[in-house]
Each structure stands twice: as structure tokens, then as C-alpha cells.
Design goal:
Length: about 325
Amino acid sequence: MVDARRADVPVLIDGLQYSNWSEAIFRQMNAVGLACVHVTICYHEDFRETVENVIAWNRRFEAYPDLIMPGRTAADVLAARDSGRTAIIFGFQNPSPVEDDIGLVEVWHQLGARFMQLSYNNQSLLATGCYEAEDPGITRMGRQVIAEMNRVGLVVDMSHSAERSTLEAVEISSRPIAITHANPAFWHPALRNKSDDVLRALGQSGGMLGFSLYPHHLAGKSDCTVDGFCTMVARAAELMGVERIGFGSDLCQDQPDSVVEWMRNGTWTRAKDFGEGSASDAGFPPQPDWFASSLGFANIVDGLRTVGFSADDVARIAGGNWLDFFERSFGPAP
């Protein structure tokens, strides 16, 4: 495989993927120089089911030690980069692995989790998802869980959460939160994309936004251009600050359509939940041709330069901002 890594990008980080993991995908990560990928290990699973996903990752670490390694700290990310590997950081897209027991927040941090969404698309015990008709905000339990997450160093992620819940999470959390995989609503009005108010609050509080490459979140969807994407990044940088943005591709490479149905349906419904709005949105849409895999990050790096970002800013967006965020966020509260 051609080495696509960039000497002008000291560290490259993807803030979210849920691919159908394989040696070929890990080699693509290495070829483009991905020092770290935050991987989803829970959509709807409970505690024990998510433990099984950790076990599966342990087997992958054993099988491909020259390609991937566990990542729990910013230092692990740098060690992966220096050894030509990719650090794998665990995260949840739902709080279901903590069930209704706040004590499991610390247990999951001990098991390696570093991000947890307070809700997926639906209402959870903690917060409201972006597909609910009403958003009453962070729940009573949610406030307690946020405080516990802050204490141990488990990052609050509001990627799928509704507006009021997200703004309240920014306000309630004593540590900066993240939106690991979404785009600005000013660019494309998907339910999962975020308003200017949310983006401003996130930037002012020291949080992070990871830009998504999932076609339903892109202007033009599968036909989105790399120039259009990078122009959006530039406008978001003006709104939030260039130090508050990075990548969170939401790449689901090589996954069958049955997986996206499971993501949307979980165990809560027997009817098909088409998620993005209509039956025509069922299944995984084709990725833009310039981002079919992690190798596409090389195209984005070139595109960021084309729209006027400096070399220092490109390095920040590519991974430097995430690395700084990890350094501040993954350990216990000072």
C-alpha cells in the first residue's frame, strides 16, 4: 500500500469510527499516518454486552500488535505515532453500559473508556436525543453522571443529543465536553448537525467538534466535494476558533446495511427507524469518492491548505487539537 502519511502533519487523529474492523482497515490507518482513532464499542449494549466488545478488541490487539495498540492517554497516542501504529481509544454512543448505576462510570474509565454520549437518538436516563419531539434537557441522574464523568476523566460527548440537552451539558460540566462527530447546521440542516449557538458555546467553553464525513451530514451528501467540506471547516473555525476543531469522520467502512438498521433500531422498536428522515435514507450511503477510507485524510489535508489554512492550523485541525484535549481530559480532575 502506498504510504500516504504527511510529514507536514505531526499527528493525525480521527475522533470517531465504527468500521467493520479488519487487517486491511488497520493497514489503511497506518498508511495515512493515523496516530489515533476513537472507536465506538457501544450503541445499545448493556454492561456485559459492552464487555464482550472490549474482549473482541483485546483479541485484535493480540492479532495485530504491529498495527494497533490500546490508547488511554495522550502519551499513548504519541507512542503509537512514534512506533508507526494507531492507538485505539474506546467510547460509547449511548450511556447504556452504565445502566442505572453511577458506580459503573468509574469502572468503565478503569476499563479504558474515554468518551460517553449522554444519549443516542432517543431519550436516555441522562439526556435527550436529537430525534425526540421535545427536549426537557439534562435529567436529574444526568447531572450526577456528568459530575462523576468529570471526576474520573470520562469525556461528555453530545454528538447525538438535542439542542437544550447539549447546551445544558456545556453549562453543567466542569470540564470541556466534545461533539465527536457532527457538522454545523449552517452548512447542512441534518437533525444531528449543530446550531451556531451550540458551536459558539462549545468553542467558548474549551470543547471540541469533530467534523463528520458521514454522507447524511454533508451538503450534497455523497456528492459533497472536498473543497465544499474544507470551506465549511474554515467557516466553523471563524465561529468557534481554530483550536476547537478536528476530525470525527463517523466512518463505517465495510459495514453491511443491517448494521445501520441496528444502530437506528437497537432493541427499542420493532418498526424500521429510518433515522435520517425517509425510507430512501435507509442503509449506508456511498462515501464521497475522496473519502472512501481513512486514506482520504490526505485529500482533506491538501484541501485545508487550498482554502487558506496555514501549516500550523492544518496541523492543529489534523490532530493537534484533539491531542491537547486528550491531555486535559482523560485523567482525574485536578
